[in-house]
Every structure is written in structure tokens, then in C-alpha cells.
Amino acid sequence: MCMTIAIHSCKGGTGKTSIGINLAAAYSLLGKNVCFLDFDSKATCFFSPFDFKSKKWINDVLFDKCSIMDVINEVDEHDKTGKLHVGLSNPDISAIREISSQDRKWQAHALKMIMNAKRELVSAGMDVIILDTSPGVDFASINAVAASDFVVVLLKPVYSSLRCTENLVNGVYKLLDKPCGIVENMCHESYFLEPVPNERFGIPVLATIPCLCDVAIKTDTQIMTFEEREHPFSESMFNIAGKIMDRLE
Amino acid sequence: MSGSDKFEQIIAILQEINGKLDRLLPQERSNNGNDSSLFESLDVMTLLSLPDHLRTTATTLVELQSATANDVAKMTHKERAVESNYLNQLSRMGHVNKYRKGRKVYFSISEESGN
User: Fold this and answer.
1) 249 residues of chain A, pLDDT tens digit each
2) Within-domain flag for B115
3) Number of domains in chain B
4) What CA–CA distances, in Å, run from A95 to A62, A69, A134, A163?
5) Which among B40, B55, B62 is the nearest to A111, CB-wise?
6) Do residue A109 and residue B62 have CB atoms under 8 angstroms apart?
7) B14 in a domain, yes or no?
8) Structural domain includes residue B114
9) Which one, of A140, A139, A165, lies nearest residue A154 by Cα?
């Protein structure tokens, strides 16, 4: 059975893309055939290892100009038992303007295109599809959440992030009946002085990741789960991957 | 009268109302000379604003794209008649498209038809 996992958060800067990419890498190291898709079309993924010089983008899939299979590229330079494929949104500013100006009817069509893309990837033998979304509530992010089987909700355990996430849980995920798991990221060392919670808002906490200065730098240029498998951040990715598999399989 | 008898009676009444509405709606559309404008593709924000019972049905239809009431009932584990009622409500609200293919009635979230 293929799992489609959306990586979402109420606010930006919570580490969605870093965790999405590294979680995808962890699944590929666990022998899975994985596809990471950048659905943050308004702030696309400028991640140097993914400099594929793509000719086709996720935008083209949403505009019904090509198949998702024309968009994805395989990341093949790492020693892994599974496979990692990546599909990106078009970083060109005119493409971002074009997709930002679409109306409700187009967004309904886009959801249909995402569902079709998901079916194509399942037919192509993907075991795990990871959808990196934009933060907050807009059509792009909620379309991706609606198309997923599980939502990884990222938050920083501070008041504003918690209240905002509670809104998302009650106003989006529960309404769409989506299984979720929370990842508390960039936690200050003082947060660990007391026992960390096992759940928030009735949702299990999958991992509590400390604020690690080297992660912020390294995840900008490398896939840490590939390069430093013993690193606490990489270990968290394997833990999250295992917990999601336990819940969905 | 037992609980299940009452439930069946309610379902039968709902089906009768559905049938009457289905006959009235095309008449109203043709009176307005406007058959297709009623249907608008279902977007995710509209989906979130639907009442719980209709949202579950609509979410299932988003997953299936195009389906009969029976197909949806298999996914939601509700009675076919209940799903038929909800799908017809969504159709009347203009959120899903209803069309006939052979002897079966299909519902879809986009402008598909049996033609």
C-alpha cells in the first residue's frame, strides 16, 4: 500500500522542507520507493542537491500540460536500498505569479490533477509520496493535505505556534478526517527540562527535535539523513518514518 | 414498530422526496434555459465548509473522482440509500455533477458525463 504524507505547518520557518526531504531520504534508506514533491509553489524549493535543470514542473501537471512522470527525477548518487525521486515547482517568478492568481474553479481542477498524479505514482510503484506544502491555510496547501493519507504537522512549541496549530487541527485536519502526527521542531534546550508531551490536541507527538545549529546550515546544502545517519536529526527522521508506517500499515 | 422498521420508513420517505426533487430540478433548469451553470467544481475550501455528513461523502467523491452511490457507500460504510440522499443533496447544491451512464447514476466532482 502506498502512503501519501503531507508535511504542513501553520507558520513558515518550521523546517517543513528540511524534514520532508530528510524523511523521504530515510524511507529510501529503509528500502522504499519514494517520491518527494514540492507543492510549495509560491516559495519553491531552492535546494542545491536538487538542481536537476528540470524542463517540466509540478505547475505543468496542475495546468494539465504533462504527466507527473515527466516531472520527477531520481536522486541516484547515494547508497540506498530504495529509490528517491523528486518533483519540483517552477521557481521562475512569472510561474509563481501565474499560479498565485488562479481562482477557486482552477483550484478545484488542481485538486483533481493532484489526485490523478497520485494515482499515476501509485501505478508506477511508489511506496511513499511526500508532499511538501506551503504554510497556513491556502488552496495550495489544503489541496495537498486533502490528497494525503497522513499529515505531519510541524510546530515550534511556543504559544503562538501552538494556538495556530490548534486552529488547523480543529478547522482543517479533523474536518477532512486526516490522521496526523505532530513533530515539535527547533525546541530550545530549556524545553527538555520537563517531560515532553506525548500528544497535543488529541494528536500523537511523533518526535521532539532540539534546536541544533548545524542542522539549519547543513540541511540547506545536503541531505543529512544520507550524509550523517548517526546524527540526532537523522535518527529523528528514522523514528518518524517508523511511527508513520506503524500507524498506516 | 421496531427501530429498524422506523429507519427503513425514513429511508423510503427520503428516497421519495429525492425522486420528486430530481424530477422538479431538471424542470426548473429547463425553465431557466440554463442547465450547466448550476454545477460548480467542488473546491477544498467549500469542502471544509460543508456540514459533517455531506463533507464525508464529498471527500470520498474527491478520492473516487466519479462514482455511484453504491461505490461511495462501500468506502464510508453507510447505507447506499443514505449516500444516495447525500449525493443528491450535493448535486442540488451545485457541488457535484450527476449523470447517467447506462442504467447507473454517477456523481462526479468535475464536468464528466456519460456521453
Assistant:
1) 899 999 999 999 899 999 999 999 999 999 999 999 999 888 777 666 676 666 899 999 999 999 999 999 998 777 778 999 999 999 889 999 999 999 998 999 999 999 999 999 999 999 999 999 999 999 999 999 999 999 999 999 999 999 999 999 999 999 999 999 999 999 998 999 999 999 999 999 999 999 988 888 888 888 999 999 999 999 999 999 999 999 987
2) no
3) 1
4) 12, 20, 16, 33
5) B62
6) no
7) yes
8) no
9) A165
Distance from CA of A173 to the nearest CA of B (A): 10
Residues in A 20-59 with any Cβ partner in B closer than 8 A: none
Q: Which residues of B touch A177 (CB under 8 A)?
A: 56, 59
User: What CA–CA distance (Å, rounded) separates A171 from A175?
Assistant: 6
**Does A122 touch chain B if contact means CB atoms closer than 8 Å?**
no
- Is B22 within a domain? yes
Cβ of residue B63 closer than 8 Å to a chain A Cβ: yes
Candidate from B40, B44, B56 with C-beta closest to A146? B44
The structural domains of chain A, ordered by start, are: 3-248 (3.40.50.300)
Find the domain containing B41 and state its range: 3-108
Q: What is the DSSP string of A192-206?
A: GGSPPPSEETTEEEE
Q: Is the pTM of this model over 0.90?
A: no
Distance of alpha carbon A226 from alpha carbon A76, whole angstroms:
12
